[in-house]
Amino acid sequence: MRAAPAIQVSLTRFGVWRAAVLLLTAVATLAVLGWFVGREAPAGTGALVVAGAAAVLSVWFGVSVAKVQPAELCWDGQCWALRALRPASSESTVGEVSVVVDLGIWMMLHFVPATSPRRARALWLPVQRRGIESQWHALRCAVYSPRPTPLADASRAGNAGLG
Prior knowledge:
The protein contains four helices and six strands. It is an alpha+beta fold. A six-stranded antiparallel β-sheet has the order 1-2-3-4-5-6. A hairpin with an 8-residue loop joins strand 3 and strand 4 (about 95-100). The radius of gyration is 22 Å and the shape is elongated.
């Protein structure tokens, strides 16, 4: 099997992701408010505090998850690299990409840096077709293509049966 050709994609549009997060945040907040209003017993101070805290937490979580920084995702035929577009001088981080959700016109990718876990953390990348239509097929081919075996591992695997 051969690997997909090199590709470089700028991920700058996140409208689908933000709309989905906004919808889920609204549903969570309305569910909490519906629970509070629909209670049979009169609402006490404790229930009011719990409902208010749950509503505030759902909105805070939704806002924090909706924030996605523009990035450049690169596949060179051997490995993946991710570089933040802001600040423009940031360095690329080498790592592995896996597809977590694929809806055809939208994907959630998981980027795990090759460096030690203390230095860099894994990132979730919501990727939508809109804005990268000309590169969409090539990106999908790259994320699903088999990874090439490193030469050292390939030579060890080839010599394993010679013993």
